[in-house]
Amino acid sequence: MHGSISRELTELEALLGEETRPGTLRPGGRTAQVRAAVLQAAGDALAEQGFAHLDLAEIARRAGVGKTTVYRRWGSVPGLVADLLMDMAEQSLPRARTGSLLGDLKANSRLVQRTLTDPRQGMLFKAVIAAAVCDARTAEALHRFYDARITEWAPCVQEAVDRGELPTGTDPREVIRAVSAPLYYRLLASGDPLDEAAADQAAEAATAAARSGAYITP
Amino acid sequence: MHGSISRELTELEALLGEETRPGTLRPGGRTAQVRAAVLQAAGDALAEQGFAHLDLAEIARRAGVGKTTVYRRWGSVPGLVADLLMDMAEQSLPRARTGSLLGDLKANSRLVQRTLTDPRQGMLFKAVIAAAVCDARTAEALHRFYDARITEWAPCVQEAVDRGELPTGTDPREVIRAVSAPLYYRLLASGDPLDEAAADQAAEAATAAARSGAYITP
């Protein structure tokens, strides 16, 4: 799944030209292909083995890329995982536009639920969250990932405020966080079932709490 | 803090006689003292170094207890961490009885918030949650810990149903989970501030969602 999205991204980058994505990337389609292959291999290794056993040389081998390229470009395992998270944030689906708050939030919670229960993606998130506990750089990359996803979905809540569905002063970001939180709690803490019913309940609870004014910033 | 609670537990066990706690414990106050000292040392080591570097011999040394005693009684690091979690569940504060649902849930959310932001306890939970990602035995022990805590606090919600504060059919355990979830999401995923305001918001949101019927079991 990730593979085909990576390929699509590579094609998109080829179309757009890489000057649209400044920073870590050097111009040229080959660079984007290398990045896609290495991030794919890093994600596979993370999902299979966890963070502690990640090895840049082994990832280079899996990706069919020279070891020195990987060391030169990413430098370290936390550096590579940070880039993987940035790539995942960029590739994640855009927000819903169903016309109702509950519809949008259900789309969000079901997307999170599908991601966390996907065998590969679920293990990947668990591995990165576990690594973030004792690695500050990975923790920062993880926080940036959630920040990007919350920024993508927050307009669903702002539009609900503008439509008069929610009280003025509601913090859109808090509402989006509230949708994800019960699903991560099940995944990481309580171990309760992480099914579609749990996703719908998370969206319904966040909607009800938002309507009551629980997320108005003081 | 943990030390004084451990001592109180030891005194309580001495009063009750250990036949009230069957299973892993042999009779006698000395056994309870050894357990308290070893669990204290295990918790300190977890909070300082994380799970990966835990070493039974080192914990025995810290606790001033013979190495063979620790190996014979707990067998392995996951076995020791499972017993530590059971001890933490037993020692955790009893549920609140404020007379209102919001009052009780705020007491719960502030207790969780204080625990997760306490330097020692917060690191301990992060370390155990990280370890549970790749160790099934630790994951089971963690799930039992939350199960015990949810069972302790669920009557606050059932009493609110009985008082007519919440709709009939509300699942008390889901409401208690909903209070904790946003706090764990901040700790483990988003990195957003985990302050008293976040705790109060979690309690208010769970109360509002429960009143709207979001936690009625289908």
From TrEMBL, chains A, B:
A Pfam family annotated for this UniProt entry: TetR_C_11
Superkingdom of this protein's organism: Bacteria
Protein name: TetR-like C-terminal domain-containing protein
InterPro entries tied to this protein: Homeodomain-like_sf, HTH-type_TetR-like_transc_reg, HTH_TetR, Tet_transcr_reg_TetR-rel_C_sf, TetR_C
Domain HTH tetR-type: 32-92
Keywords: DNA-binding, Transcription, Transcription regulation
Keyword flag Transcription regulation: yes
DNA-binding positions: 55-74
Record keyword Endoplasmic reticulum present: no
